[in-house]
Structure formats: structure tokens, C-alpha cells
Amino acid sequence: MHIPDGILPLPLTLGGYAACAAAVFFCLHRIKKRPEPAADIPKAALLTSAFFVASLIHIPVPPASVHLMLSGLLGVLLGFFAIPAILIGLFFQAVMFGHGGLTTLGINGVIIGFPAMAAHYIFRFGTRGKHGPKPTATFAFLAGALAIMLSVLLFALLLVTAVPADMGAAVEKTAMLVIIAAHVPLALVEGVITAMTATFLLRVSPRVLHGV
Amino acid sequence: MSKPPCTPVLFVKLCLAAFLVFIAGLLQPDCARAHRMLMQEKEPGVLFVYYEGRVPAAEAAVTLLDEEDEVLLQGKTDAEGRFYFDPRLGARVARADDGQGHRVVYDLEESVLEEGLLFIGDDLPLGLRVALGVGAILLLFGALYLWSIRGRREKNAHT
Predict the structure, then answer these.
(1) pLDDT per residue over A122-181, tens digit each?
(2) Region A110-115: what's the mean pLDDT?
(3) Structural contact between residues A26 and B5, judged by C-beta atoms closer than 8 angstroms
(4) Which of B29, B133, B104, B123 lies closest to A94, judged by CA?
(5) Residue A182 DSSP SS3
(6) B101 at the A interface (CB within 8 A)?
């Protein structure tokens, strides 16, 4: 779900960068207001590394192929660190693997980072005052799965409206439906991963989970 | 002054553990696949369009362009990801698009792919690129962490 260099019009790439810059500014402002702003940096480092490598873990969903993203997990565990962490991960994915691109870094940040923030709010509001295993698992699953579905919807919307494809409209529509359908199993997998990680952290270190 | 939540030593240990897990994961070649789209001219007049891991890109739209970027031929790859064309057409560039956000541009004269900006390339093994990427990320956050706690200590010392 990475848009490569050279296929988006310039105003859209600049718009993506502007939206990401505003989001990063907002996130850093919120992080700075915390009593211990550096407390989550080690956690952010590990999860950014996981996000970076996750794009190599391929899940065959015939006829398409999808890869892990972990954006929902980053949103749940990192909160306001998620968007800066995702942008750093996307930068290294573009440089090291050729996934995505540097001109599309901003727009890819919007596609993956904004749903991660949505996942953060879903989890945070869902588990407010209810830190038991059941609400934690339920809302972590919802956060992980919905982050993927929101990303794929944003991605499909962008491709259909802004990217001129070398194929007919009907074929492109079919391709979009295939890609949306192919991401449903991925959303379930990521929901389960997020729920398992959240319940594990709830048992061993609740502060890491609910201290964001 | 409150105790720092994670000491640098613990941070290094955690990073090392995570790094070993990633490397172990990458030793399973089936998992180390992604789907960047690639193209190769197998022989004159036959293009092979595929994803990383040499998975054929079936039904991808292929466009052949001349030096003035005029379209010479359009068509689709077959189930094996192959596209056949007449090499006498004089095409300079081949472009493939699967309609799912993957696109590749191939220079038929130079037999090279047009890659993204700053892409380090496929010359380095994948494992090494992963190690470099993870190392760079950890270094970046490590520097940020040390800079952040140092700034906080100085601030506390002044107050």
C-alpha cells in the first residue's frame, strides 16, 4: 500500500507533505507537554524497526499479495509518537527496499499514519476507565483492523481519483475491489496481532499499554 | 527528579534482542518477500513483469513508448506475467501498471529500471539492507533519546 515516485501529480505530493508536517507538529507539541517526553522513545524505536521490517512479510491472498503494516499496533502503543515513527519507517522503506518513494512520503504518511492515529483514539476512548482484558482485547482488535481498512480505503480513493492508470476505468475499478477485498484478511490478522500484543502487555506491563 | 523510565543500557539490550528476532525472521526466505513491481526483458520482444520474489504480475497493463513518449503499443501481460511485442517497433521505454498502485518503468535501450529517488538498489543483499535500515532507525532514536534526557538534566540542574 505504498505509492511509488512519479505517479502522483505535484500538488498532491505537496499536499501530502503539508498534511504530514501539520500532523507531526501537532504530535510533537502533545509529546512535549508530557511530564517525561523521552519516556516512549525506546518503545518508538523498537516499533519503528518492526514497522520498517513488516513490509517484507508477505501474505499471499490470491489473486493479490499483501504485506503486514502494523500501523494499528503503532497507533495503540505509541499514541502521538505513531505518525513521526511511521514517517521514519516509510523513509527507510523507500531508501532500502524501494517501497513507496520520497516524493510520495507525505501522501504515504497520510495513508498509513492518519489511520494509526484513528486507531490510537479508538483504543484510548474504548478502554477509558475499563482496563480489563476483555475491553483491551476488543478495542485493540478493532483499532488494528480498522487502521488497515481505513488505509486501504484512503489508498483506493486516491488511486481512483488522482492517479491516471494505463488501463480502462472498468478494469481499474475491478483492481480496486480486488485490493480492498485482499486487505480484509490482513485487517483481521493485524487486529489479532494488536489484540494479542495489547493483552500480553496488559499482563506484564500495564503502564506501557495504558501509560500513553 | 523522577527516575528515567528506561536506562540507556536497557535500551541497548532491547534493541539487540529485537534486532536478533528480525534477523531470525529473515532467515526464512518465504517470508522475506515484498511486492515491489519489477520488469525484465527476457529476450528481444518478450518482457517479464513480476513482483519481488519473481511472482508474475498477471493482467498488468503494459505501454511501449518511443523517444518522444508517443504510445506505440498497449496491452496486458499473460498469466505468467509475460508481454510479447515486435522488437522492430523501436520502443525506448516500457511501462507496466497493475492498477493497484504498483508501476514500473523500464528503459529498453539501457536494459535498466527507473528506480525511485535515493533508492539504495538491489546490489546489496536484502538482509544487509534490513540490518542497515534497522541500525539507522535505532541510531536515530538513540541519539534523540540521549539528546532529550541530556536536555532535561541540564534544565533540572538550572532549576
Answers:
(1) 999 998 888 888 999 999 999 999 999 999 999 988 888 876 666 667 777 777 788 888
(2) 96
(3) no
(4) B133
(5) helix
(6) yes
Give the cell for residue B144: 534523540
User: CA-CA distance, B87 to B91, in Å (whole number)?
Assistant: 8
The CATH code that applies to domain B37-113 is 2.60.40
Contact across the interface for B6 and A42, Cβ inside 8 Å:
yes
Copy the grid coordinates of residue A191: 487486529
The C-alpha of B34 sits at a distance from chain A's nearest C-alpha, in angstroms, of 5
ipTM of predicted assembly, 2 dp? 0.85
Min distance A182 CA to chain B CA atoms (Å): 11
This prediction's pTM:
0.80
- Record: contact B116-A101, CB cut-off 8 A: yes
Interface residue B72 vs chain A (CB under 8 A)? no
Q: What domains appear along chain A, each with residue ranges and CATH number?
A: 10-210 (1.10.1760.20)
Shortest alpha-carbon distance between residue B30 and chain A (Å): 8
Residues 45-64 of A with CB under 8 A from B: 45-46, 48-50, 52-53, 55-58, 63-64
pLDDT the model gives residue B32: 37
